[in-house]
């Protein structure tokens, strides 16, 4: 590995001086113990000084088969020797065509067409624009269907359309003057129920209310977008069983298209290939990104039903074309990685193989309730959020300026673990291939970090 290292280049210094990091307060950045990653191997990241860390958040929720995976590398190299990129605007290419078939094969059966892009945000923009245009073209009876129904505290990405359907105060409220208007349903958050009810005695009051809202706005709503089973960036908030099914039914009965944002939950993360399968949901559109290339290259796709696709067909001069496309749409290198990733799911029987891992994960997570500062622990498959609170009985939060979540992740670094919090919610999301021994090491380091941060 030494030969790859360039000792004359001080990347740490260059970064400090030149790079503006995403979702990062840069004031004080130079004072923090920043890590410059140099290479990866399986579930480990190595920095420029040779320190080794467990990648506890799959490099922001994307990594599936481990870093530097020989088979993934081989697929990428094979494709590079053919071609790296040609446009999908008016031209086709081999790996993106193969990928479309493989993606549809593992997705809800009613989805028939694939529209590529390159990030979760763009996959959402595409779903929203298509839903809007679909009803514009459907005829006069649908002319009022212009609005999108979205969930409270949703996160769908950072471009303005995806921010419009988002609902995280801290990230989104400033941009309000730039955003389009939406209709809101309440995302269930059982630990802090907005209706102050208790599950299951509540009998899913939140869902009943959402059903009413969907019905009430049926005339003006073209689509509803939601993160199925788990809301990610808002704090790893899991849905109670039955909620998603009720939302699907309400959409169906009221002629509102259902868009599932599976950007975080897709590709095995929740224990099934897509979260839609937990309650057998048939969406009209599904957004996928993060794990699609196994964590190798940026890529996204929005999958649609035949019916929606057909709504865009017509003579050239009728302007039913979907005038949308990003330059690197359907890129060959990214497609080749995504194809290989899906092949590895099959070849390694990954969805079955992670079952015991996920069971152990759930088991280890229960221990966290022994910690005084842990209020709630939520998980599905191999994604979890540990909510830290100042007072477990009143559920009082820590003062933001205490930066408790940040304290925990800095402690974790000292113990050889990379994680990133969402405020005071500690996110744990190891690569799907993590073995049980390493998972135990990871969880015990996080446990100790939470304990140490509270002192
Ligand atoms: C991360 C995320 C997005 C945005 O994806 P980017 O690739 O960061 O644009 C959208 N929706 C959900 C649910 C996500 O978790």
Task: Give an account of the 3D structure.
- The strands form four sheets. This protein has a seven-stranded mixed sheet, sandwiched between helices. Strands 1-2-3-15 form a four-stranded mixed sheet. A four-stranded antiparallel sheet has the order 13-14-17-16, covered by helices on one side.
- 46% of the residues are buried.
- It is built from 14 helices and 17 strands.
- The protein is globular, with a radius of gyration of 22 Å.
- Helix 13 crosses helix 14.
- It has two domains: 160 residues, Aspartate Aminotransferase, domain 1 (Alpha-Beta Complex), CATH 3.90.1150.10; 274 residues, Aspartate Aminotransferase, domain 2 (3-Layer(aba) Sandwich), CATH 3.40.640.10.
- It has 455 residues and is of the alpha/beta class.
- Helix content is 34%, strand content 16%.
- The mean pLDDT is 96.
- Pyridoxal-5'-phosphate binds next to helix 5.
List the keywords.
binds pyridoxal-5'-phosphate, four-stranded mixed sheet, globular, seven-stranded mixed sheet, single chain, Aspartate Aminotransferase, domain 1, Aspartate Aminotransferase, domain 2, 455 residues, alpha/beta
């Amino acid at each position: 590995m030494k030969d790859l290292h360039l000792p004359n280049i001080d990347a740490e210094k260059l970064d400090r001086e030149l790079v503006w990091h995403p979702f990062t307060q840069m004031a004080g950045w130079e004072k923090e113990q920043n890590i410059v990653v140099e290479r990866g191997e399986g579930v480990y990241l190595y920095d420029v000084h040779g320190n080794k860390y467990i990648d506890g958040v799959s490099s922001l929720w994307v990594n599936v088969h481990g870093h530097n995976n020989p088979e993934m590398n081989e697929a990428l190299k094979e494709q590079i020797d053919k071609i790296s990129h040609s446009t999908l605007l008016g031209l086709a290419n081999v790996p993106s065509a193969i990928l479309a078939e493989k993606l549809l094969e593992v997705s809800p059966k009613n989805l028939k067409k694939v529209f590529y892009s390159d990030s979760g945000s763009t996959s959402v923009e595409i779903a929203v624009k298509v839903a809007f245009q679909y009803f514009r073209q459907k005829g006069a009876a649908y002319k009022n269907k212009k609005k999108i129904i979205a969930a409270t505290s949703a996160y769908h990405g950072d471009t303005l359309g995806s921010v419009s359907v988002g609902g995280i105060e801290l990230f989104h409220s400033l941009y309000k003057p730039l955003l389009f208007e939406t209709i809101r349903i309440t995302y269930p958050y059982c630990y802090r129920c907005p209706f102050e009810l208790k599950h299951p005695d509540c009998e899913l009051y939140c869902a009943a209310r959402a059903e009413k809202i969907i019905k009430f706005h049926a005339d003006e709503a073209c689509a509803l977008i939601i993160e199925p089973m788990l809301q990610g960036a808002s704090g790893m908030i899991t849905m109670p069983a039955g909620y998603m099914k009720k939302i699907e039914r309400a959409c169906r009965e009221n002629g509102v298209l259902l868009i599932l944002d599976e950007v975080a939950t897709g590709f095995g993360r929740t224990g099934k290939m897509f979260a839609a399968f937990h309650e057998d949901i048939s969406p009209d559109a599904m957004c996928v990104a993060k794990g699609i290339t196994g964590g190798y290259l940026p890529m996204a796709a929005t999958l649609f039903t035949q019916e929606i696709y057909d709504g865009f067909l017509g003579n050239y001069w009728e302007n039913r074309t979907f005038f949308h496309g990003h330059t690197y749409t359907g890129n060959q290198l990214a497609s080749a990685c995504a194809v290989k990733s899906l092949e590895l799911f099959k070849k390694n029987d990954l969805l079955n193989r992670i079952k015991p891992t996920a069971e152990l994960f759930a088991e280890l997570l229960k221990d966290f309730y022994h910690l005084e500062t842990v209020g709630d622990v939520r998980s599905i498959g191999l994604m979890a959020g540990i909510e830290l609170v100042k007072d477990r009985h009143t559920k009082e939060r820590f003062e933001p300026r205490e930066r408790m979540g940040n304290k925990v992740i800095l402690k974790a670094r000292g113990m050889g673990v990379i994680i990133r919090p969402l405020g005071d919610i500690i996110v744990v999301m190891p690569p799907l291939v993590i073995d049980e021994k390493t998972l135990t090491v990871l969880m015990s380091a996080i446990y100790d970090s939470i304990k140490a941060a509270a002192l």
